[in-house]
Amino acid sequence: MTAFDRAWCLLKDEEPDEWADVPDENKGGTCYKDAFLSVLSNPEHKLAHAVVSGTGPLEGRQYDHAFRVSEIELPAPQEHIDRFGPQMIQMVHDPNWGDGDGVPLALYAWKGRFDPNTIQYYTHQEMMEQYEKHGHVGPWGDGE
Fold first, then answer.
1. Quick one: which of 54, 70, 49, 58 has its CA closest to 116?
2. Which helix (H) or strand (E) holds 71?
3. Domain ranges for the chain
4. How far is 130 from 30, CA to CA, in rounded Å?
């Protein structure tokens, strides 16, 4: 089923056939809204959209997902920083995981079974441009 077909089912308030056996509590997530609002509150972070694979009741199903990503500098001795520069790591902030300090992107991608190289990132400004263009918080589609 294409993204358009899924969206059309949502507009008609119907359930896509491929989701018929998914428990109701695992439907209708708010990740796009939550991630969008989170980046509004943390404009130095980036909005991230990815296609992830579910676990538990969503085992093996791929679906669009949104979350917030920040970068932090790893502690290192000054001589290491002088020689190699600061070492940065991306941290994912997802309300479903608790929105505290976040988890490393590599762990998040492993748990969500997706390639972190496939993430579509949006700066605060790009996010706002996409919102103005489309009139909703996402997903917006690649290359739009």
1. 49
2. strand 62-73
3. 28-134
4. 18
